[in-house]
Amino acid sequence: MVQHPLRWGFLVTIGALGALALGLAVFNLSSIVFSVFLAAFITVGLDPLVRWFQRHGMTRTWAIVTVILLIVALIVAIIWVVVPLIVSQISTLVRAIPQEVANLKEQGWFDTTDDASNGVLGSVVNWIAAEVTKPEFIAAIGSGAVGFGISVANAITSGFFIAVLTIYFVGSYDATKAAAYRLVKASHRASFINYSERILQNVGKYLSGMVILAFINAVYSTILLLATGVPGAFVIGILAFFITLIPLIGTILTTVVMTILAFIHSPVSGLIVLILMLIYMQVEAYILTPRVMSKAVKIPGSVVLISALAGGTLFGLPGALVAIPISAGVILIVTEVVMPTKERT
User: Fold this and answer.
1) Is 57 left (phi over 0), alpha (psi -120 to 50) or beta?
2) What is d(CA 44, CA 296) in angstroms, rounded to the nearest whole number?
């Protein structure tokens, strides 16, 4: 630097400009990079299903083919059945809620309760009726259900891209891992493979377990709303599936939303939904979760909340879902690698 200050300054400037250009490129490609990471996480979550087919007599090849066929069948079902049904349900829900609010206000107890709350109840109900009819609300529902972007076109494009990537990753999962392992020095490769396989298997069990719990929650929520006559039960169930993928807070959020919508439909329906969802939350916490997640990595509740908040701030709902498995992997690395190393030194 002393002998050749001009050369040193030139190299530093070139390096800084290169770093800025690389950062800008990554920022512009952030949606694609995130889609690739999300497809990779889905692949890791599908690996326990592949192993389940193997344990039931299938070869690895046929297990992978079966999972890929299931993915294709799911895509076809979403395009031909789920998407039209969601659009119809959203339209029905938007038209029904203003009428439900009007019917609620006509009931004798409403004015008395509104007066007792100094107009708070009426203000909340009016706000819900106004918000639910806005185009922004409809776009938010669509974005939350699909999880990618604010427009249906972007959501379908992103979903198709991720589905194709997932199919490719599932088919080449073993080959990709083997190629990645060869990048590690031979002297450390055995221990690296051991830790990596344990981390991937535990994260895969965690992801598959959360999907099972979310599916049970969505089915239960849909049946409960249908039984109480709440409009838009199917689309609310779809939203419940994605939201309850976030542990601890997901079920609470869906319970609050379902109770409010059921209360607008009928106070009796709202009370029934609240009671039965509270019962379900206890069953999920003490029966379903211990059974489904018994072999998965344990994540402290504080880490779940922090991860969900950070991921949701950066990438919305998909970011919150991906951040939690990343935290699970970090916890496994700390417990399996860092802590044993510290104990030996």
Assistant:
1) left
2) 13
Coil vs helix vs strand at 222: helix
CA nearest neighbour of 268 among 232, 240, 236, 229: 229
Question: DSSP H helical segments within the chain, as ranges?
Answer: 5-28, 30-55, 60-77, 83-106, 108-116, 120-132, 135-146, 152-171, 173-181, 186-228, 233-243, 250-265, 267-283, 289-292, 301-333, 339-344
pLDDT tens for 170-199 read 888 888 888 888 888 888 888 888 878 877
Q: Which long-range contacts (CB under 8 A, 24 or more apart) does 198-201 make?
A: 198/332, 198/336, 199/329, 199/332, 199/333, 199/336, 200/44, 200/47, 201/47, 201/48
The structure tokens 């690389």 sit at: 22
What count of other Cβ atoms lies within 10 Å of the Cβ of residue 291?
A: 11
pTM: 0.68
Structure tokens at 329: 């992997």
Tens digit of pLDDT for each residue in 4-32? 677 777 887 888 888 888 878 777 776 77
Euclidean distance between CA atoms 142 and 60, whole angstroms: 37
Per this entry, what is the length of the chain? 345
| Spatial CA neighbour of 94 closest among 129, 126, 64, 61 | 129
In the 3-class helix/strand/coil scheme, how is 63-109 assigned residue by residue? HHHHHHHHHHHHHHHHHHHHHHHHHHHHHHHHHHHHHHHHHHHHCHH
Nearest Cα residue to 233 out of 284, 269, 279, 275 = 269
